[in-house]
Design a protein that fits this description.
The protein has helices spanning 19-31, 69-79, 90-122, 125-139, 150-160, 162-168, 181-196, 207-218, 228-234; strands spanning 3-8, 35-40, 58-61, 64-67. It is α+β, with helices and mostly antiparallel strands and 235 residues long. It has a four-stranded mixed sheet, covered by helices on one side.
């Protein structure tokens, strides 16, 4: 029986854009586990009520409900130790934890002004009132003012990537010669702007851009994932 992944989606259920859900998708693929990614909306709390909270990603594995992308990664290694490990040893886990936390507390805040204004354009009508009120409260301004200065929003995003740019300038992956869960955490985080921005936000000639291409080569199925750009081109 495949694992069920509740995965944040837009009004078009094929548009999956959560940075945290992308991390879990990558982890499940790395483990080689069969799973079904079920579209979830911001206001669909009843769908995941058994997880005891209201945010995705959530997985259901043989009746076990697990939420939070980091906790899911730990669960997958603990439950399936004979499959390719996300954390081969304690050092790899510690390094991945730092990168995961950096993505959450530094990179994502630097990316919000670029992406948050794009989210409300793609979500279901039923989600828009909740999204507007919650994000305006968190950011302290109307959504129309968030990212109004596009150049400043892009500058913030690029500045947020500086630690990764410096690291990847002389090594192929954040974990060194081979990718680890920290690379999945960053890649998943970047799928948020890559999926939702009207133009590709990543300079593919930069160190991060070249790393992103290496990650795509390892996960070619990601390249087929719809973006607002691909959907517009197909319309």
């Amino acid at each position: 029986m495949p694992i069920t992944l509740y995965d944040l989606a837009g009004a078009n259920p094929d548009l999956r854009f959560s940075p945290y859900c992308w991390r879990t998708r990558l982890a499940l693929h790395h483990k080689g586990l069969d799973f079904e990614a079920v579209p979830h909306c911001f206001t669909g709390r009843e769908q995941i009520a058994k997880s005891g909270q209201s945010k995705v990603p959530v997985i259901v594995d043989d009746g076990h409900w697990v939420h939070d992308s980091w906790k899911i990664a730990l669960y997958l290694d603990e439950t399936y130790p004979d499959l390719p490990l996300l954390f081969p040893d304690a050092a790899a886990r510690a390094q991945a934890k730092f990168i995961n936390s950096w993505c959450d507390w530094s990179l994502l805040p630097n990316t919000r002004t670029l992406v948050v204004p794009e989210v409300i354009k793609v979500i279901a009508e039923a989600d828009k009132a909740y999204f507007r009120s919650s994000r305006e409260k968190a950011l302290g301004m109307p959504l129309e003012q968030v990212g109004a200065d596009k150049a400043a929003a892009m500058k913030s995003f690029v500045q947020g990537l500086k630690p990764a740019e410096a690291t990847l300038d002389d090594q192929d992956f954040l974990h060194g010669a081979k990718p680890g869960y920290g690379d999945m955490a960053l890649f998943g985080t970047l799928m948020w702007p890559v999926t939702l921005c009207p133009s590709d936000p990543i300079d593919r000639q930069s160190a991060v851009g070249k790393w992103f291409e290496r990650m795509l080569a390892l996960s070619p199925w990601v390249a087929k994932a719809p973006t607002v750009r691909s959907l517009a081109g197909a319309a």
